[in-house]
Amino acid sequence: MSKRIDVSDLNVYYGDFLAVEGVTMAIEPRSVTALIGPSGCGKSTFLRTLNRMHEVIPGAHVEGKAVMDGQDLYAPDVDPVAVRRQVGMVFQRPNPFPTMSIKENVLAGVKLNNKRISKSDANDLVESSLQGANLWNEVKDRLDRPGSGLSGGQQQRLCIARAIAVRPQVLLMDEPCSALDPISTLAIEDLMSELKDDYTIVIVTHNMQQAARVSDRTAFFNIAGTGKPGKLVEMGDTATMFSSPTVQATEDYISGRFG
Amino acid sequence: MTVTDLTPATPGVPDGSGTVQLVATQKRLPRWAPWAFAAGGVLVAFGILAVTGTPTIAGVLGLGAVLYALGLTITSRVVEGARWATDRLATTLVTFAFLLALIPLVSLLWIVVTRGAKLFGATFLSTDMVGVYGDMTSGGIWHAIVGTLLITGAATIISVPIGLLTAIYLVEYGRGALARWITFLVDVMTGIPSIVAGLFAFSLFTLIFGPAYRAGIMGAVALSLLMTPVVIRSVEEMLRLVPNELREASLALGVPKWLTIVKVVLRTSIAGIVTGVMLSIARVIGETAPLLLTVGLITQVNWDLFDGRMATLPVFAYRQYEQGGVGIDRAWAAALTLILIVMLLNLIARLISRLFSPKTAR
Amino acid sequence: MAVTSPPSTRAGLGSEPQVPATKGGLAGRVFAGLSTGAGILILVVLAAVAVFLVIEAWPALTASPEELQEISWFKADSLLAYVGPLVFGTLLASILALAIAVPVSVGIALFISHYAPRRLAQGLGYLIDLLAAIPSVVYGLWGALWLLPILNPFFTWLSGTLGFIPLFAGYQAPAKNIMSASIVLAVMILPIITAVSREVFLQTPVLHEEASLALGATRWEMVRMAVLPFGRSGVISASMLGLGRALGETMAVLMVISPGFLYSLFLLKPGQQQTIAANIASKFPEASGLAVSTLIATGLALFVITFVVNMIARWIIARRKEFSGAN
User: Residues in domain ABC transporter (chain A) (predicted)?
Assistant: First the structure.
């Protein structure tokens, strides 16, 4: 069962530097939300605050609220590790673990956490996750080969399989196709529309066509200038955003006048 | 692309026969000229030395090298001009520098093997020095091998956990002033002379256990003082090679930081870490001075690291050399053993790094 | 939980707890504490080195000259007068070693980085690194038993022809003089200076190299215009690291030199100089009481000298990093 996330008045800082200011948005369950905007506008930074991955960078911290189905992700007694088990992430460049086989990569979330799992459960989980990532048929005969031997697109789908094997509620994708060729990109986009039946998906993309193709709702971020914080300009249904945005900057960006 | 390919200085330009005008104007020495000068230099040197005295190999090669450099540079200056002559002289000197460094390497290995082979053998390796005195040629280094392995092993057991954890701190946790201080002090530690490490271990143990205390552990502490910074540096380097993306991938799966470090970062860099540890063992296993001060030497095997003096290969070799006579043969044989151990460690280290490092695409 | 088919995979998730409150991550905190502790241990150990050396040297530092002169080998007027010639000998041997090693090392580094065929370069690098792997006592044996007889005719010739210069006067066979010791030291510090210089030379921006070659420079002119200026500070810091190592090296000097305690510049004369490290190693095993303290006091002096030299080396490296940060 996927969950909704309500963000209100979220500020993101790197040390003293305010990177993203005052974001308020609702992320609906079982849908794809696309974050678009020019480079450096803070959309990736904002995405990483949804599973507290920004805390990996020293000095990064947030103010404001991010609530997932009534649970504040930033409540003082919440463990970021637990947040990340509920909110999975796929990165810009495919990053399978080079020391692990395809199978071990899928099971990484379980194995790395020292959890015990029976052999048959493990096999089931590998199969269901790889099928969920549309990769099963391509790799079922070589599950014990290293994950780094796959093509870029296959590696990215392996990373998606690895993320959904942990059974998250939400899946964050940070420009998941920017390092891939068009055919692999298409495969990932198809996969996204299947996954949204079961997950809340948030995707950061530079590719406006991609946002239009895959997302249900679109949020446009912008930045006033270097050194200024990024802001959420407007958010709405993708169809509305691309046909009749209310803000001039959105229209300029979407029509390719800048960015 | 190699620089060599671009350099006009390589004597590969066809001399005089070129169709390109630029080449034709440049008069160059033929490609075989350096070889001819080398052969000529050696021959003339042999001639000179044969007339003036006895030609030794060192003398002929030394004088031949000087004649070669002079001959080639002067000829080049006349034929090719000053710039090319300087270039040839530089090439000659740089190549000589390299060849010069090979002299100690080759001569050292050669003399250790030939002189060491005299006593080296199964009996030498498996007996100790109990009851051996005067000109007796019996006796061996079993006790010293045991001592060296025990002390170096203990030093490794002390250094590796501390070094590994410190490196993890510096790469994964360390921020701010404390991390900067530790980095700085690891640098300082790298520069501690081995004899000072020996003095420190001596001071530490004699202050606690009294001035007459001697034990293998003193030597192990001294060696670990020298070994720890080497371990830290090499592990640090290996950990920094692990791409950040792998850490993020693991953290994003909801794996706690410490498990990410243990199971992803260390797992990915384990081959490099083991290699670094092996090389650091090879580095301290031949240390002599600190052991001379702390552990001393005895004639029989001592298995107890915490009680009494111990024999070690380097100290054994030194004491036997001092003693002279047949002791010198023993010193060479012990040196051969030591070099074999060091080379073996180096070889294993290189093999590990070649065989087990993960094949990352990036 | 059993998983059968992809659609039902997510069915059971509703029963999963909400984001659980943190249990504190005890293991994680223990692990972080352990590694921080190891780092702090480094601070403690270094402080301990200084403190213990001072404690043990204290009796000698505070003893009167008369007390010190009861030590059989203590002939000087005061501790300072005893340490002085040793510091001089240490510096002289190390600087001589450096003077020999640096040009050769730079030559080797250039040979490997810019002259040797690229396929061979790495193997040649290993060959030089091999020199670093050889134990110091083996260098001592090699120096004392192989090198000294080889140097004898050369030193005889040098003393004969250039003997009017005091530096080279008064040679006596065997060649157990500071020059021989420095040559052995030079061989021992060659690998580290070569390794660091080689790394720096290899980092020379290819653009600079190509720019000078495009101007029609010969290979040497390219090296002089692009490689050497770029690598200068790297070579300097490499030399300082080598110097630090030469200062503390014990066995090679101990086994080669015939010791003396003079401020003497006779490089080929035996019985003139001695280094701190070799002096400690030769006297320590038989020493007791105040003699031990005196030797540890000289060790303290060596510690301070190497500390300063290494600091300067690190400072140069750090400064260089700042400059090259822009590239």
Answer: 5-248
